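TL;DR need structure tokens for one chain.
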Amino acid sequence: MVLQLPIEQRIDKSYILLRTPQGEEILKRLRQIQMAVNQKLKQKVEFQKFENNQGEKICIITTQIARIKAKLIKTKSTKQNQNQKFKQLLSDIENQDFREIMIDDKTIEESLNSIFLEHFTKNQALLKEQAEQIKYAKEVYEQQYREQYHS
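>> reply
TL;DR here they are.
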């Protein structure tokens, strides 16, 4: 019935209706509904921000997990290669013919004798040189002593 009236009269009737105690109660409820709707919208926006933030964190964590897995695979591969090389080296050592490595005692003795002789000769030459230097220093000292006390 109200909708059949021209708009001006509808506005007037609505205004008059809102000024009654029932109208004020309706306005109070409308404000409560509006506040509840605003609160729900605010919560929805905050939840969407939270979801977006969680999505970003999940992406970061997923990326980090992928990096860690790659490092783990690389480390495992490296360890396997090292183990394989060690086993090969061990096998080579076990299979090597040590008779090829053996040196006869005479060769070792001759080598040691030649090394000893070389060092002995060097030391002997150094000792002779030091003896000559001491002899020369003694002569110089004796000459200075004679010059100082006999002059």
